């Protein structure tokens, strides 16, 4: 019994010495967002109508709650004490939803019980093919995204490449990816409003 008590005490002390976990978000505070030139957008002349954002896909190796950081020598580090508030795919979908809500004045409807018919809802799909965070150098998002417009047969498919230089530190990596997320949402919002190709993306119409 004495040995067991000593073992439990040593484990408790080891736990007390563990580094604290830090949580990060891709959505900056509203006060910061509204003051940023990146996020400023004209109020649409008319409502965009109901729209839904499907589950966002990301590379499997990055779809963790832990931040995944690449080193210049090719190594990949999983930062077990630096965490997104949810697995990356889920968290990125939430961040994009919040950004679109701010820009369009209306949130996606997927979390509501809606009487709107399938034909009356514009559908958005986002496939993030790269979500790179290279320590002390840059962060990047490469995303293929598609909008199926309600009430028509029009489908817009676009490819966006975004990259921001960053300084050393985890906070710099997160801030850079916040900017990339804002810019991606700006392109999607622009297309929802205009039904046209946004600036900065390669698109095709069908």
Percent of residues in helices: 25-40%
Superfamily at the CATH H level? ABC-type transport auxiliary lipoprotein component
The biggest beta sheet is recorded as:
5 strands, mixed
- Gap between N and C termini, in Å? 74 Å
Radius of gyration: 20 Å
Under CATH, the topology is which?
Rossmann fold
Quote the average pLDDT: 84
Percentage beta strand:
25-35%
CATH-derived architecture? 3-Layer(aba) Sandwich
- Content-based structural category: alpha/beta
The number of helical elements comes to: 4
**Poorly predicted residue ranges:** 1-15, 32-37
Number of individual domains: 1
Widest sheet: strand order? 2-5-6-7-8
Topology:
Blueprint: H1 2-16, E1 22-24, H2 30-34, E2 51-53, E3 66-70, E4 76-84, H3 88-104, E5 122-134, E6 138-148, E7 155-165, H4 170-194, E8 202-205
Parallel strand pairs: 1-4, 2-5
Antiparallel strand pairs: 3-4, 5-6, 6-7, 7-8
What would you note in describing this structure?
- It is elongated and about 55 Å long.
- β5 (122-134) and β6 (138-148) form a beta hairpin.
- α3 crosses α4.
- It has one domain (22-205): ABC-type transport auxiliary lipoprotein component (Rossmann fold), CATH 3.40.50.
- The chain is built from 4 helices and 8 strands, in the order αβαβββαβββαβ.
- It has helices at residues 2-16, 30-34, 88-104, 170-194; strands spanning 22-24, 51-53, 66-70, 76-84, 122-134, 138-148, 155-165, 202-205.
- With 206 residues, the chain is of the alpha/beta class.
- Mean pLDDT is 84; it is low at 1-15 and 32-37.
- The protein has a 5-stranded mixed β-sheet with strand order 2-5-6-7-8, with helices on one face. It has a 3-stranded mixed β-sheet with strand order 1-4-3, covered by helices on one side.
- Helix content is 30%, strand content 29%.
């Amino acid at each position: 019994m004495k040995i067991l008590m000593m073992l439990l005490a040593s484990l408790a002390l080891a736990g007390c010495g563990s580094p604290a976990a830090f949580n990060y978000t891709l959505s900056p505070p509203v006060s910061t967002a509204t003051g940023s030139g990146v996020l400023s957008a004209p109020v649409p002349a008319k409502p965009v109508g109901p729209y839904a954002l499907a589950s966002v896909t990301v590379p499997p190796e990055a779809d963790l709650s832990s931040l995944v950081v690449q080193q210049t020598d090719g190594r990949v580090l999983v930062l077990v004490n630096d965490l997104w508030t949810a697995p990356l795919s889920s968290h990125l979908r939430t961040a994009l939803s919040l950004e679109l809500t701010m820009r369009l004045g209306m949130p996606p409807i997927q979390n509501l019980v809606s009487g709107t018919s399938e034909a009356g809802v514009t559908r958005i799909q986002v496939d993030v093919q790269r979500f790179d965070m290279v320590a002390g150098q840059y962060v990047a998002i490469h995303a293929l995204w598609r909008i199926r417009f309600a009430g028509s047969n029009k489908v817009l498919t676009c490819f966006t490449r975004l990259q921001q230089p960053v300084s050393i530190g985890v906070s710099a990596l997160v801030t850079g990816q916040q900017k990339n997320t804002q810019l991606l949402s700006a392109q999607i919002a622009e297309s929802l409003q205009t039904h046209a190709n946004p600036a900065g993306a390669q698109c095709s119409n069908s």
